[in-house]
Design a protein that fits this description.
The protein is α+β, with helices and mostly antiparallel strands and 299 residues long. The chain folds into 2 domains: 165 residues, 2-Layer Sandwich (Ribosomal Protein S5, domain 2), CATH 3.30.230; 125 residues, GHMP kinase, C-terminal domain (Alpha-Beta Plaits, 2-Layer Sandwich), CATH 3.30.70.890. It is 36% helix and 25% strand. The chain contains 10 helices and 11 strands. Strands 1, 2, 3, 4, 5, 6 and 11 form a 7-stranded mixed β-sheet that branches. A hairpin with a 6-residue loop joins strand 8 and strand 9. The chain binds L-homoserine. L-homoserine (HSE) binds next to helix 5.
């Protein structure tokens, strides 16, 4: 990168109900970094979703970038990084995954690392702890991913899904560690087998374009939703309302507290309008799948 670049990373919604820590879908909602080479490092925050600007050495994106560049034995060119985000923090829309990927791409651009997508995915998974948000944020679309025993991350990207989304974001935040803390530490063989069956058939239904069945199975998750539902405001109300208005299914987005409804384009608007009217303190938004993942424009 010789002078300036723009890094764009999508928001993501993980789990899709029963695919816990495995599935994630990229949304057309973005974190954007404008990077301008400079004599020193500076991070500037713009937009309503970001906290006040902090000293660069404390910034997550800088810390990720510095670690990546150091590991590759390269120096980054100091830069002024202006960050604009439409991804709210601690709402289950992959804000930390997008920040980590932005940091990796920042190192890639300012230290000329030429990282491959697989390297970026492995690094991002290491920072995030699991690949379900970082994989779709990097690659776009719906991605099913898992680490192998040797820590390699393998994935399949499912293309051409005819799905639209409505997200309902409450004012309250929910920390991922709290939402993970609500889950059992182990499952019985019977429960694990049944929960996996639901997850497997849900993915098969998506692959076959049987969205009605996929939506039904999304709402049958046994791994996490039953334990987290009490942490999510209006959980039952949003599911029932969206279903009545034609949603295939509604699930917790990632660790919550945002809820995400999947529907066809015809029903998306009426679901969004009704939820916004019934839940006026929420931010309700319509989204499509982002099919691109991280994008970099070098100027
Ligand atoms: N799969 C994760 C969870 C997503 O549900 O806890 C949030 O990082």
């Amino acid at each position: 990168m010789s002078g300036m670049c723009k890094i764009v990373v999508p928001a993501t919604s993980a789990n899709m109900g029963p695919c816990f820590d495995c599935a994630g879908i990229a949304l057309d909602r973005y974190l954007t970094l404008t990077v301008q080479n400079s004599h020193s490092w500076e991070f500037k925050h713009e937009g309503d979703y970001l906290p006040p600007t902090i000293y660069y050495e404390d910034h997550l994106m800088y810390r990720v970038a510095r670690t990546v560049a150091k590991r590759k034995g390269q120096q980054m060119t100091p830069s002024t990084v202006t960050i604009n985000s439409n991804i709210p923090l601690a709402r289950g829309l992959g804000s930390s995954a997008s920040a980590i990927l932005a940091g990796i791409e920042l190192a890639n651009q300012t230290a000329h690392l030429s990282l491959s997508e697989d390297e970026k995915l492995t690094l991002a998974t290491e920072f995030e702890g699991h690949p379900d948000n970082v994989a779709p944020a990097l690659l776009g679309g719906l991605v099913l991913s898992t680490p192998l025993k040797d820590s390699t991350v393998v994935y399949e990207r499912i293309r051409s899904l005819d799905l639209q989304m409505v997200i309902a974001i409450p004012e309250t935040k929910l920390r991922t560690d709290e939402a993970r803390g609500a889950l059992p530490t182990s499952y019985t063989r019977e429960n694990a087998a049944h929960a996996s069956s639901i997850s497997n058939v849900m993915v098969a239904a998506l692959l076959q374009g049987n969205y009605e069945l996929a939506g039904t199975l999304m709402e049958e998750d046994m791994f996490q939703e039953p334990y987290r539902s009490q942490l999510i405001p209006n959980y039952d109300f949003i599911r029932t309302t969206a279903k009545e208005l034609g949603a295939y299914g509604t699930v917790i987005s990632g660790a919550g507290p945002t809820m995400i409804s999947f529907s066809n384009r015809q029903h998306q608007q009426q679901i969004a309008d009704a939820l916004q009217k019934l839940l006026p303190t929420y931010e309700v938004a319509m989204h499509s799948i982002d099919e691109n993942g991280v994008r970099v424009h070098v100027e």
